[in-house]
Amino acid sequence: MLKYLKIWSFSILITSENFNESFTNKVGRVRITDELQSIKTEVVKLRKAGVDFIIALGHSGLEMDKRVAREVDGVDAVIGGHSHSYLNSEKQQDDKIPVGPYPVIENRGDQIVPVVQAYAFCKYLGKLVLTFDSEKRLVSAVGGPILLDQTVPQDSKMLEKVEYYKRLVAEKFVDQVVGNTRVFLDGNCKCVETNLANLITDSFIRVNLNNLLKDNVTLSGWTDAAVAITVSSSIQSSLDASKTQGIIYESDIRRILPYKTLLCKVTITGKTLLNALEHSASMYDYKNCSLPENNIYGGFMQMSGMHVTYDIKNVVGSRVQSVKIRCSECKLPSYEPIDLEKNYTIMIPKYMAFGGDQYKMIKDELINFTETEALLSYVKENKPIYAGVDNRIKVLNY
């Protein structure tokens, strides 16, 4: 008969693919190491301390969660996040489509290792029931997400705390009306061009131009940076303002771009820009893009001032079929084929410039504006918003 289990859990905070100078500069004396190697080191310590069952609490996405389960001897269960994966083996509770069973079972030799996630935004509560034999071995793992709808009572003490802190926040931050929109602003941009991504990258161009005009900078053309790029992972939500008669609030902007990443102005060659575009297409996966909560690569590039055609049937490194760049030194902005030897000045978030999402080919020159502030400024100056898609990105044979 099993009398007791000594259980321990530890946390994994970030995916190694997102290691970059922009992030590590913000964490002071905290040292960031590879998650798999770090877990292996900790597991050895915990086993020596007599721990029977080890749970890894992750925030590296479902695919990394499964790798941890398969590759790290001693980890007995993985509870993950980051990819917002909705897993369910039981009857569908609402309109969410599961991306896998709950739990996902990975096998490491003769051992089963359950992997679970419960989507995001506290919509579900994950329930995992584990059964052990008399030798403290895990023999079954079952469960599923519990939909936290109106049938689940809210905790009265917690509600009191929430209301208290809401009042404190309201005193410090008054939600301002910043603009309005006539259209739905689509943030699901990890595989396709969307109007919200276009709006955001257009705002980078505008905020730079406004700075140049304010500082009375003499220009040979209409601007010095006619191209702006960002990664789709920086855009965290869409905006459907139909319930507010099209009104856009400051909190909407901060929800769309929550990271407050500084913008940079970068001068790179056409060849480097082409390499960045090839990198953007290197992990393209349209099939999984229909599943927003799946662990989709977030490095797909969104842009202003470029027209790009990708052919996904080609091998990685040869997928860019054509690139046209908007000129900056011209009096009338127009698009011309990319010149690999020419220098181009572009606007880019610091996250990318320091190698985020593996964009290691670019270096930066900071300007004193965040991407959030750029979008705020643009929305305030351009009312109403009616952003659309205009064939900046074409993808063939996906």
Task: Write a short abstract of this structure.
The chain has 398 residues and is of the alpha/beta class. Helix content is 26%, strand content 25%.
Structural write-up:
The protein has 2 domains: 7-147, Metallo-dependent phosphatases (Purple Acid Phosphatase, chain A, domain 2, 4-Layer Sandwich), CATH 3.60.21.10; 175-396, 5'-nucleotidase,  domain 2 (Alpha-Beta Complex), CATH 3.90.780.10. Strand 4 and strand 5 form a beta hairpin. It has helices at residues 21-24, 35-48, 62-71, 156-172, 195-214, 250-256, 270-282, 286-289, 350-353, 371-381; strands at residues 7-12, 53-58, 77-79, 104-108, 111-116, 124-132, 138-147, 177-180, 227-231, 247-249, 262-269, 301-304, 306-311, 320-326, 335-337, 343-349, 366-370, 393-396. It is an alpha/beta fold and 398 residues long. Helix 5 (195-214) packs across helix 10 (371-381).
